[in-house]
Amino acid sequence: MKKQPTREKLLDITFDEVYIHGYTATSVDTILKKAGIPKGSMYHHFKGKGA
Q1: All domains of the chain in start order, with CATH
Q2: Which of the two ends of the chain, N or C, has the fewest CB atoms closer than 10 A to its terminal CB?
Q3: Is the model's pTM score more than 0.90?
Q4: Euclidean distance between CA atoms 14 and 21, whole angstroms
Q5: CA–CA separation, 30 vs 45, rounded Å?
Q6: Residues of the chain with pLDDT under 70
């Protein structure tokens, strides 16, 4: 099984969270917890929630 790149993993989880809870109810902390990724790694790939 091939490991999913971090950026793709974050995008997939974010899509699911926004679809289920809506943009304003989706938190970066929830996304990171589900992805098992530290906050610093997220900011390596994205500027912030709106990026």
Answers
A1: 6-45 (1.10.10.60)
A2: N
A3: no
A4: 10
A5: 17
A6: 1-2, 48-51
